[in-house]
Amino acid sequence: MYKNTNKQANAIAGWGYRLTTIKARKYAIENQLPFISLEDGFLRSVGLGLDGFSPLSLIADKLGIYYDARSPSELEELIKDKSRLVLNLNDATEAIKLIIDNELTKYNHAPAFTGFSNEHHLQNKKVLVIDQTVGDMSVKYGGADQQTFLEMLDKAIKENPNATVYIKTHTDVINGYKKGFLTSNLDNTSVILFSDDINPISLLKHVDKVYVVTSHMGFEALLLGKEVITFGLPWYAGWGLTDDRHKNIKSLKHNNRRSEATIIELFTASYILYCQYINPNTGKKGTIFDVINYLIKIKKLNNKLRGSVKLVGFSFWKKHVLLPYLNLPSIQTHFFSINKFIKNENHNKLNHKVKSQKILIWGQGKKNINSILQNEQFRTMRIEDGFIRSIGLGSNLVMPYSLVIDEIGIYFNSQQVSELELLLATKVVTKEEEQQANSLQQLLIETKLGKYNVGYEKNIKPLDTNSKIILIPGQVEDDASIIYGSPIIKTNLELVQIVRQKNPDAYIIYKPHPDVLSGNRIGKIGEAELKKYVNDIVEFVDIIHCIEQVDEIHTITSLAGFEALIRHKKVVCYGQPFYSGWGLTKDIYPNSRRKRILSLDELIYIVMYEYPIYIHPQSLDFTDPETLIKYLNNKKLEKVRQIKQFWLKKQLQKIKQILLLIIKMKFSKCN
């Protein structure tokens, strides 16, 4: 039942030509209101709409709709508006390059095509004939039918006698969900049926000529500079770029609906001016580049984790923590306890079942599983918290809003290469990316945000000293970053001793790690022993406020060193944290593999943008660091969490966090 608001409608909107719009269109005509046709944009999402992935771009056409050749559309008008197109050509050039280089298309779940395997045909020219599904509106309103497809196939074979002809059909046809115009009636043995669900642009890069009726793949082929022959009336036909065979193509030109246009003009009109975009990170109106950058990042993650993934040794809490990060179209997850996994692998060995498996573990993993994972049949990836994590400690079961998934090593283990180290050693950071990193740096400085964001503000700087002020952030002594990332110094006491030895006249402040203060982890130094070496001890003060008030930070491997670099402080490393060895820190025990010199902007970009993934605390959808930082800053201003918690309160907090996460995941899937 609809509530009558007594407001007069200015227009009526409906989804294309679906049956649900019949009454809406009739109402619009009767009331002399414009009807706005809605459709997905050409860069829609990572996964399919049927799988619950919402559109990131939308078309709203007041004249018609782009695939209906019977009447004009706003897209046709935009293509002819040369004065408007010229203002956006630079953006179009940049967007085309990003789309082609990263093979972005409407749905971005499918794997890339790596080449044809039939060696007999490798030297032949390759002609691609694109089938479509029965019921496709673009076929019906593009002046085509079953006979059009049969004629297209016949022409493709006859016109290319020395070429290999492939028919690309939709996977829904092969799986029996829909019928295809060609594949349902295919009895020709001279063509090869190509039915794999692969990325369209990656396939088009491997062919020489493309035959289409109205498929959008025809336009993507034009972007790649391929020869395109059309047999229907797609929106990109009739502009002098395609070989058009439909009998009504001349009437479109004679009626002044279509004239001459370049490929960049078609792209500018269709992708930049015709489509409207949402910023996937904020949920607000965005640009094509917001969507492109998002799709590049999430598509890369989807490809990295593609297929069946075994997650081994995760607690009940961490299972639910991981679910939002694994909400991707091409992943099937299976959780195993360590004992169950070991038992399963022993069973496989007895039955001679050996196959490549993708395994995810937390951090460095435990000894009883690491010995098994040395086997070459496993492709092991490691998961850890990111560098802007939450407001509150992980040991108190506060949800992490950033993670890293590393398929080479893990960032805190300096004994072997990690994805992060490889990126830091090889990635070329563009000027635009450096500017992006610099803006993020300023945001972090302004918001005073770090990893956990616990503690309060306090003046720790002594008023009666001219000495150099050094901050030593304590660490959890059994933490993997010390075990695997510090070859010599292993304890907090060793650190304060060597810092005092090297800096006899400095004013040294020691800050115990929050997890040690909370009683959750080990690393405490007796107060009497500690005071032999330090001038002051600060406990429940926010680490960022401490960093801001000192001259230098001396650390084993603490992330506080990276947070200090962001704030232009001198950092001395006694271990080998990920940010050391790149010319920005003083390294007491340098890592011989790290020889490249990086700028601070380059370091920040790679560490904060390239390596981690982020999710929004409310929607649990993927986001970017800026959006997360702004959200956490608002929450931090509302309330600063207390580090110490009584036992009962801590258990209730665990239950609360798990229930909230389960509810959020169910709600996000429903929407």
TrEMBL record:
<dbReference type="InterPro" id="IPR007833">
    <property type="entry name" value="Capsule_polysaccharide_synth"/>
</dbReference>
<dbReference type="Pfam" id="PF05159">
    <property type="entry name" value="Capsule_synth"/>
</dbReference>
<protein>
    <recommendedName>
        <fullName>Capsular polysaccharide biosynthesis protein</fullName>
    </recommendedName>
</protein>
<dbReference type="GO" id="GO:0000271">
    <property type="term" value="P:polysaccharide biosynthetic process"/>
</dbReference>
<dbReference type="GO" id="GO:0015774">
    <property type="term" value="P:polysaccharide transport"/>
</dbReference>
